[in-house]
Amino acid sequence: MMSQRRGNRSTAEESEANLDDAIKECVRFIVCREGSKIPIKRAEIVKHLNTTCQTLANQVNTVIVEANKTLKRVYGYKLVQVEAKSGIQYIVVLTEECDSVQSNVNDPLQRKLLVAALTHIYMSGGPVKEDDMWKFLSEAGLLEENDHVGRKILTHTFIRQMYLKYFKIGEGELARNVFEWGQRALEEVPKLFLLNKMAQAFEKSPDFWCEQYKEATEEVNST
Q: How far apart are CA 149 and CA 143, in angstroms?
């Protein structure tokens, strides 16, 4: 009887140790992937856990939940489930809104383009037509008129990273591609930061733009 209890205890301890290993491995995998800003497929996490720790399918949810707790506590990150055409995907975002985009985007040009694009959309009060975006960025001196490489940063890189959405509206001759804030931007980028940048540039008070100021302050008060 005592031998059986010891055996049960040993099995339970081993199972708990395996779960801890899986959680650590899950955290390591997510942190390594975070740098690319590309959404992580749940299937990729499952495959990695199965390969490295032989994690059982019925343990995966527990592992991801516990890994998310560690990400928040140790790294200041959190997993956010995002809309995907096939399967579940996650993005890794900061748990606290930062006071700039600097810590999120390393490349200086990309950072300037992102701030400018998000600001233009925000100040426009809704989706911005593609042609209007190129004109704005050209007039701001951030993109040459036919800089297709630069444009690809907006239409591909920022889309994959979910800072922006890029989609078609309308039909036929009226069809237009537009840009809109993506889910990562909504999670990470404080609108008040962008509005303060605008205020500094135009030497105005942030509340000069009434609607945007109201939206930005409501966002702050809701967090």
A: 9
What pTM, to 2 d.p., does this model score? 0.80
User: Model confidence at 22, in pLDDT bands (50, 70, 90)?
Assistant: very high
* One CATH from 1.10.10.1200, 2.40.37.20, 2.40.10.10, 3.40.50.300 for 2-94: 1.10.10.1200
